[in-house]
């Protein structure tokens, strides 16, 4: 079978997305919840994703929508106001109606899958319990661990806040969201395997702990049917961030449902990350984008690292996964190493400049990425990180809203309110999430 390139299966953040800018008000910073509300009001119908009638056929669902949801949840934590929970629930409900099996429940699937869990490749025309993305030969679509993990993670984070900050108010919504998330997780589980052996001479990965992750679902360039519906995967592990986003959803699901059903697999993915940290770098934590692949050596970029760190943060808060204070200290130094203070800019890779004198390449995705919740989490350990993120956002993002910037502004308000002791709902180190029953 011919090899499908990374550009087809894993388009980089800056190329895979279309950022649509609404007609903007005069440039304005975000220093209060009212400022955030004013910016979000510029989105069509004042409600992202649904107001814009997005469909999951491109990556906006998995990237921009995720950051919009982060922004709403951050504002709910800052203020304690249920309106942010209600608005984000309306977005999530809209997104759920566009999961393939629900979207095409009463009409034919309008494009065959190029890659997907094998049963849906064999039973051509049956919609999957996931959100397809456009990739591969037109008009084919694919159902992937990455996209489904990103979307499931949004639902999980909403449920976690509903349980912690608004106990009993949204329990019916939590239950129905968890039921759907479980369906999507279970659909992808047959692609989970131990990490393949790699040549330590060619990669920084060191197999010091048992590790696992998801693999590529088998795909066909010729769009031919598989011989049976038995699960079939292709090649080795998918890039680290793909497995980590699904594992983040699995970790949250287990805690919300009071079950250890996915705990062992979550630990294997955490170990995959820990094994990937370059042992030659002692002060910072550096790892590769695709650490189990011996024919490449790409240090992780700041944007995809934010996805990795979502699981790292959740594992740290939950405790017992091997994410400790020593690693957090290294991550703090990683942040400062890729931040360029003279222009409040950000290097593309988490390793910072490739050689002395290199300047950042003025990348929109990496600039916004430091406002993601998982990078700003580190401000709890070093408040100067929040100061730097604000400097970047004040310099580059006072214009109209996008999912990336609104998530960043919201997360920044939350980080600053935590540091000031003013947040209405604060994420505890170990979330107290009452099990709701399986």
TrEMBL record:
Residues 1-23 form the signal peptide. InterPro entries: 6-hairpin_glycosidase_sf. GO terms for biological process: carbohydrate metabolic process. Keywords: Signal. The keyword Signal applies. SUPFAM superfamilies: Six-hairpin glycosidases. It comes from the Bacteria. This is Uncharacterized protein. It comes from Rariglobus hedericola.
């Amino acid at each position: 079978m011919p090899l499908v390139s990374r550009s087809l299966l894993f388009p980089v953040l800056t190329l895979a997305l279309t950022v649509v800018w609404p007609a903007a008000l005069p440039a304005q910073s975000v220093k209060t919840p009212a400022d955030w509300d004013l910016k979000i009001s510029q989105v069509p119908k004042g409600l992202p994703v649904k107001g814009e009638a997005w469909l999951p056929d491109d990556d906006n669902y998995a990237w921009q929508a995720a950051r919009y949801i982060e922004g709403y949840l951050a504002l709910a934590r800052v203020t304690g106001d249920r309106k942010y929970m209600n608005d984000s629930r309306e977005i999530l409900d809209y997104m759920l109606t566009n999961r393939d099996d629900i979207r095409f429940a009463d009409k034919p699937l309008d494009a065959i899958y190029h890659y997907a869990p094998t049963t849906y490749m064999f039973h051509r025309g049956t919609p999957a319990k996931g959100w397809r993305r456009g990739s591969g030969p037109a008009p084919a679509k694919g159902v992937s661990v990455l996209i489904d993990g990103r979307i499931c993670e949004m639902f999980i984070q909403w449920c976690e806040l509903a349980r912690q900050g608004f106990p009993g108010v949204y329990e019916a919504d939590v239950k129905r969201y968890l039921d759907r998330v479980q369906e999507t997780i279970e659909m992808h589980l047959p692609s989970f395997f131990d990490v393949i052996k790699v040549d330590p001479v060619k990669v920084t990965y060191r197999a010091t702990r048992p590790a696992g992750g998801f693999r590529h679902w088998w795909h066909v360039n010729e769009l031919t049917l598989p011989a049976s519906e038995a699960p079939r995967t292709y090649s080795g592990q998918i890039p680290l961030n793909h497995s980590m986003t699904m594992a983040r959803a699995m970790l949250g699901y287990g805690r919300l449902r009071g079950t250890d059903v996915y705990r062992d697999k979550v630990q294997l993915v955490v170990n995959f990350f820990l094994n990937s940290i370059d042992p030659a770098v002692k002060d910072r934590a550096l790892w590769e984008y695709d650490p189990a692949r011996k024919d490449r050596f790409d240090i992780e970029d700041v944007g995809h690292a934010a996805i990795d760190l979502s699981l790292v943060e959740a594992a740290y808060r939950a405790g017992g996964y091997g994410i400790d204070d020593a690693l957090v200290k290294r991550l703090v130094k990683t942040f400062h190493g890729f931040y360029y203070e003279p222009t409040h800019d950000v290097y593309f890779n988490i390793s910072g400049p490739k050689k002395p004198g290199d300047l950042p390449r003025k990348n929109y995705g990496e600039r916004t990425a430091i406002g993601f919740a998982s990078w700003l989490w580190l401000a709890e350990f070093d408040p100067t990180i929040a100061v730097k993120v604000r400097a970047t956002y004040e310099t580059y993002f006072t214009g109209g809203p996008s999912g990336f910037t609104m998530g960043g502004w919201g997360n920044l308000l939350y980080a600053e309110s935590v540091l000031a002791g003013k947040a209405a709902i604060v994420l505890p180190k170990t979330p107290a999430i009452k099990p709701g029953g399986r």
